[in-house]
Amino acid sequence: MLEDGLVFTFIGDAKTVVLAGDFNGWKTSLLFEKKTNNIWIYTWDKRMDGGKHLYKLMIDGIWIEDPLNTNFIIDQSGQKVSCFTLEKDFIPFKKFPLLLKENEYVFRYYSDSAHSVMLVGDFNHWNPYSNPMKYAGAGWYEIRMKMTPGYHTYCYVVDGEWIPDPGNLVQYADQTGNIVNVLKVPGALKPY
To answer: 54: closest CA among 27, 26, 18, 83?
Structure first.
């Protein structure tokens, strides 16, 4: 485990290596990247709940347990399923929203299944239709925003569900108990 991701590795000759587990709904969408000497790497860089997690690898279309992990369970069909335990929630360190230049930020959100992602906050009166995010590829949605100096609260609306930004750990509960994020934009505040 790194500060910004959980690293899965596979060593061997293969054309494709895929990771699937309970943490991604067992979807076969997490492709390893081949490095030198038949070393394959996949880095999970999203939030993951603490506790026991199950996963398998698919090597050229064939499911196997992780040969580099000695921890496993036997499922109902008698097959080995690799597992690992996180003692606490894994929250990757990411620097989003990212400051691009003076008061201009890029907001990014990852989802491999979302149909629409909107940015909402005090800067658009929490209107979920004001700032739709554009699909940037590989599961990432993003939007560039010019922000005024001061503190701003925001979150995302993903397919109609209001979700805090997993890339910004500065959060608090608003008046209704919803978790929202806080972004501090430097600069002199302008009087009204």
So the answer is: 83
Residue 52 token pair: 């026991």
> Residue 184 corresponds to which amino acid?
K
Query: Which superfamily, per CATH, for 98-185?
Result: Immunoglobulins (2.60.40.10)
Whole-number Å distance between alpha carbons of 113 and 77: 29
For residue 90, the 8-state DSSP code is B
Residue 20: strand pairing partners: 56
Cα–Cα distance between 107 and 117 in angstroms, integer?
11
CATH class of 6-86: mainly beta
CA-nearest of 53, 59, 70, 54 to 34 is 59
Instruction: Write the pLDDT tens digit of every residue in 11-37.
Output: 999 999 999 999 999 999 899 999 888
